[in-house]
Each structure stands twice: as structure tokens, then as C-alpha cells.
Design brief:
Blueprint lengths: L2 H15 L10 H12 L11 H8 L3 H11 L17 H13 L15 H6 L2
């Protein structure tokens, strides 16, 4: 290989090292927008944000949304809900149960039996 061509290759390697990335990185405002959208109401007819829905809404890739969520400790998909019974005698029943734990009768055994299996309980949701 002639001397001139070898020099061009080495110079090309050094120039390539400082080239900008093929796709420009997103600025912090895109991450802030994703966080703000995550903390806002989810899209219509959904209960929570999914990564794909957020990526589409923010105009970024799914992996970028996942990186932003991970960096901010956000997990919008876990559902934390509590369903309250519509039983009119609920307060009296709770008082009786809590009373057994707070001040149990002497020499007594307290047993608790669920009246519905887990799959039946899901039907009430």
C-alpha cells in the first residue's frame, strides 16, 4: 500500500472518532415530557400507561421510554387499588374481627375462612 493511502486511513480513523452520532440524542425536555405524561391521566379507555402507548404519545422509541421511567423510578403499570365492600354491616364486622386480634378471649383459637375462592373474588371486580 503506498504511503499516502496509509496516512489517509489513519487520519480517517481519527476523524471518525469525533463524528456525531447518527441520531441526535434527545434533550432533557423530552424526558421531562415523558415524566409529566406518566403522572397525568392515561389515554382514553385505558387504566394505565403502557410503554408502547407512551412511546407513541411522546414520539420516541419504547426503549427510550423505559430508560426514562427506570431513571426516575417510575412504574406506571402496577395497579395499587383497594376495593371497599358495599356490605351495610361492614363496620360492625370489622370491629368484631379487629376486636378478636386486639383483645382475644382467653384460651381461644381464632380461625379465618374466606367465603370465596380467589377466582370467584375476581368476578366481582
Amino acid at each position: 500500500m503506498p504511503e499516502q493511502q496509509v496516512g489517509d486511513c489513519v487520519d480517517g480513523l481519527f476523524r471518525g472518532k469525533t463524528r456525531p452520532p447518527r441520531i441526535a440524542p434527545f434533550g432533557p425536555e423530552v424526558g421531562d415530557r415523558i415524566v409529566a405524561l406518566t403522572l397525568a391521566e392515561p389515554p382514553v379507555k385505558t387504566t394505565q400507561w403502557t410503554g408502547r402507548a407512551m412511546a407513541k404519545a411522546a414520539g420516541v422509541s419504547l426503549s427510550y421510554v423505559q430508560r426514562v421511567w427506570r431513571s426516575h423510578g417510575l412504574q406506571p403499570h402496577p395497579i395499587r387499588t383497594f376495593k371497599l365492600s358495599n356490605d351495610p354491616a361492614l363496620a360492625a364486622k370489622v370491629r368484631d374481627i379487629v376486636g378478636l386480634y386486639v383483645d382475644p378471649p382467653a384460651h381461644a383459637v381464632v380461625l379465618s375462612i374466606d367465603e370465596k375462592s380467589q377466582i370467584q373474588a375476581l368476578d366481582r371486580t
